[in-house]
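Our consortium's second objective concerns turning raw sequence data into structural hypotheses that experimental partners can test. To show how far this objective has progressed, the report includes one record in full. It was chosen at random from the queue rather than selected for favorable results. The single chain below, 253 residues long, was entered without modification.
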Amino acid sequence: MDRSDVMGEPRVSQRRQDGYSIVELLVAVTVFALVFAAVSIGIGRALELNRGNRNRSAAAYLAARQLEEVRSQPFSAVALGTTTCPYTTTSCNVPSPYTVTQNVVWASPGNTSTSCDVPATSGSALAYKRVTVTITWPDMGGVAPVTSQTLLTPPAGTYDPNDGHILVQVFDRDALPLAGQTVSLTGPETASQATTGDGCAFFPYLDPGTYTATISTSGHVDRQGNQPATQTVGVTASQISRVQFDYDQAATL
């Protein structure tokens, strides 16, 4: 008879005496690994969110600083078009790792969306330059860039009310706006400008007269097959003359 039965002591199982089995150990390690992975992912996401917030705060400061610099410049010194200052360029005084993109277009009262939506007549209606500053940085991870805008009004008497304006719109074969096309004007004055994302190039305050608008992009033609594509347009005081190009890559049969 076993001594434990005689003394009334509880029987200790042989399994408990032998310790944990390898299966129990593997289950414990697996559970620990899953918990550790979940905690690590949570910490990583929290750090990523904190880094994104910090980058956005810094980008918002840079955007505000850039707009203040633009406002401090003479109205005529704020050039139309898009300029980009990457973080690798020290001359722009932009700290790493941010990129500042500045876009300047003409805008009429009540319009802050596109340079194409200018009024049918000019005069004091063409009083604004719309400046859009966009700040980006590497590894944004789906975070939206920081964008700020401002409108600049020229001082009284800056432009002659007897001048006229030309609006050039460029579309591709599908009637979609064609951006990045350089439009050149020759006539009483000469000017050159690239079309915006809306396919527009706006030339304000030109001396009245006859102008020639030209687009010359390698491999592109208009609907008549002309390369470069040209159109003649007259400028009348206090009026906006509109020119439209249908322009796309040439094709062969």
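The partners drew two points from this record. Residues 56-152 form one domain. The chain has two domains: 56-152, 164-249. Both points have been shared with the crystallography group to help prioritize constructs.
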